[in-house]
């Protein structure tokens, strides 16, 4: 139980801190803007400085278009198709009747401008085999972790999206199509990199396979990130404040006292909030971080888009960025999605609604599972701990 | 009795009424409501019964607690083109008060031995069925005595049969006599229904 009375005094302190933070933020905002204006004047030398910087410790990005480029909302054909997937999961509980887990993927296909029926459905995947539940790491059986299930869910989201692309292209070979996913295109990388070598290769293959499949259907892919906290553009601006010709941060500056440190923490989207008008997008950037070998050809690019309610970060693979008509399709159709969804892309919102597993669904999932196991005459047992959580004693 | 294309599916049923979810138009996804007072039937596939009911209440709303309908300022056509997902997220349900059933070629104007089963299909009765069922009007008692049924429903039911019977004034007279008999102690109610039979 949560003791709200005790929590209230802690919250008062938190509110005070937030206020202080907000006033600091305003100062930082002015500095960021000033630095930005300076950077516009010496863009080429900054990019060169970035490429030469040794051990630049902050994740940064390189502009692929002039810094002052602001693309206006393109005028596109109203007839188009938007595809989206999103996933959720029920993680295995060793206290429940059986150790198995479920990934549920919401699949959306909206056909605009024609009045054709949409597709809104969810596809559940049950993982129950020994190889689903245990991974062999250095000859040891290790039960799958929540991260592992999160990764499986993420891969499934891409794979299902790819499948949807193939099916849609077959049915509508000529219609412009956009494939959308929620969150970052590279959101799976941290989990992927943490995997043991053999599993990592399989996972990379699946991810690259999905990307390739989407590309082969001639469908631009994008990821929509709401309230992004990424700071690659701001980190690029650090170079504008750097007094050294060749920044060698480790040797030249003491940590925390760098001349460029006044810019952080400040998310990129706040900068673009001040610069972009409604419907406009920022120039394209590409992060300096190297792309893992299996994903070569799908290097990440991103831009920021003023959608009205917020400035969203839109991530696209390099092959989308390289085709102006696809870039325009992403720009225009994503904006229209946010308009239709009143602040958030409608296809992503509904993909989420299709995917979400409510607590009542979870209870039904276990009830159904126990019935099926009982039908198969398999003894079932809920742990004493789980039983105690469901019924207390006084 | 010929099976027409169904208009809904039973999602709740009891001895006295059944609730159906209206079927979606396969092309547009929209659900169409049957008229108030319309005679409908739920087909029991296995027991061979057709259970007849009078549409007494129609309700349309969001399918779940997540989606709240808001004004979008779009015409029907614009909705179909710009917000195609909403029709799948709207529910339309209609309740029918049971007034009788059909079994082996005979219409009965009393409660069926069993209620419809959940997932039975609901059909609108065709003219021939309406005419044959309304040869007698004993069922008006069930309709009038059903809890919470509005006079509007009784009047709409009679108007609908009158229409199907080619505006037969003899039928109207018979229905009026039956109502007068059933409501002999409730003059106010009789007047209320009669006023709604202004044709």
Provide a concise account of the structure shown.
By secondary structure, chain A is α+β, with helices and mostly antiparallel strands. Chain A has helices spanning 4-41, 43-52, 130-133, 146-171, 189-193, 197-216, 232-241, 249-252, 268-275, 318-321, 324-340, 346-355, 359-375, 384-390, and strands at residues 61-63, 80-90, 101-112, 119-127, 134-137, 140-143, 177-182, 221-225, 285-287, 300-306, 311-317. In chain A, helix 1 packs across helix 7.
CATH uppermost class of the largest domain in chain A: Alpha Beta
The first-to-last residue Cα distance of chain A is: 16 Å
Mean pLDDT of chain B: 92
Please give the share of residues in helix of chain A.
Answer: 40-55%
Give the secondary structure arrangement, pairings included:
The complex is a heterodimer of chains A (394) and B (199).
Chain A: H1 4-41, H2 43-52, E1 61-63, E2 80-90, E3 101-112, E4 119-127, H3 130-133, E5 134-137, E6 140-143, H4 146-171, E7 177-182, H5 189-193, H6 197-216, E8 221-225, H7 232-241, H8 249-252, H9 268-275, E9 285-287, E10 300-306, E11 311-317, H10 318-321, H11 324-340, H12 346-355, H13 359-375, H14 384-390
Parallel strand pairs in A: 2-7, 7-8
Antiparallel strand pairs in A: 1-9, 2-3, 3-4, 5-6, 8-11, 10-11
Helix pairs in contact in A: 1-7, 2-7, 4-6
Chain B: E1 8-13, E2 17-22, E3 39-43, E4 50-62, H1 76-82, E5 90-103, E6 106-108, E7 121-124, H2 127-133, H3 139-145, H4 151-164, H5 169-182, H6 187-195
Antiparallel strand pairs in B: 1-2, 1-7, 2-5, 3-4, 3-7, 4-5, 5-6
InterPro entries (chain B): HerA_barrel_dom
Domain Helicase HerA barrel (chain B): 7-93
Protein name (chain B): Helicase HerA barrel domain-containing protein
Describe the structure.
The complex is a heterodimer of chains A (394) and B (199). Chain A is 46% helix and 18% strand. With 394 residues, chain A is of the alpha+beta class. Chain A has two domains: 80-232 and 258-357, archaeoglobus fulgidus dsm 4304 fold; 360-390, no CATH class. In chain A, the strands form three sheets. Chain A has a seven-stranded mixed β-sheet, sandwiched between helices. In chain A, a hairpin with a 2-residue loop joins strand 5 and strand 6 (140-143). In chain A, helix 4 runs parallel beside helix 6. Chain A is globular and about 75 Å long. The two termini of chain A are 16 Å apart. The mean pLDDT of chain A is 90. Chain B is of the alpha+beta class and 199 residues long. Helix content of chain B is 29%, strand content 26%. Chain B has helices at 76-82, 127-133, 139-145, 151-164, 169-182, 187-195, and strands at 8-13, 17-22, 39-43, 50-62, 90-103, 106-108, 121-124. Chain B has a six-stranded antiparallel barrel. The interface between A and B is medium-sized, with 16 and 15 residues.
